Amino acid sequence: ETEKAILLEQEIKAKEETQRQLEEKMEAEKQSNEERMRQMKEKMDEEMRLQREEAQRAMDSKLREQAALLEKGFQEKADRMSQEMEEFKRQNTEAENNRAREFAELLENSNKRHEESMAMMMKQHSEQMRALQQQMRARPSGGCCI
After folding, report:
1. What pTM does this model have?
2. Which residue windows does the record flag with biased composition (Low complexity) (predicted)?
3. Predicted local distance difference test score (pLDDT) of residue 140
4. Which of 3, 17, 1 is nearest to 128 (CA)?
5. Which of 53, 64, 83, 107 lies 20 to 30 Å (CA to CA) from residue 37?
6. What pLDDT digit, counting tens, does each position of 59-110 carry?
7. How many Å apart are CA 139 and CA 146, to the nearest integer?
8. pLDDT at 143 over 70
């Protein structure tokens, strides 16, 4: 009986250690996912900022060109330039919206994968805890307690 109790205690300690490791793995996974999300957001923000700056430079250039055309009396060309600028603005806005939508989908997919991974680990955690509790209940109540 004493040997059985000792072996059971060792087995329980081993399962508790496995459980502790699983909990650490889950926490590490959570931290890793949060860091990945933060980096993706920073990258997206930087890309959007650069895209806006480039669009602003292009728009400034077109405005200078339009002003020069107006100074020289080319109203028709200046009007065409205005239309081009409006089209450029529309395309730029559409590109920004597309990139934002793509980023949102990327985040959603990443979060979904993370949630699935965490659910699987939680299931393992629950199963291990259930097995551990069953072993604790099956332990002989009388006799040696180590």
Report:
1. 0.51
2. 129-139
3. 54
4. 17
5. 53
6. 898 888 888 877 777 777 778 878 888 888 898 889 888 888 888 888 888 8
7. 11
8. no
Mean pLDDT computed over every residue of the chain: 83
Report the candidate in 27, 48, 49, 29 with the shortest Cα–Cα distance to residue 37: 29
| Cβ density class 89-121: b for 16+ within 10 Å, e for less | eeebeeeeeeeeeebeeeeeeeeeebeeeeeeb
As to burial, measured by CB atoms within 10 angstroms (0-12 exposed, 13-18 middle, 19+ buried), residue 37 is middle
Which contiguous run of DSSP H or E holds residue 105?
helix 75-138
Helix, coil or strand: residue 3: helix
| Contact predicate 85/63, CB 8 Å | yes
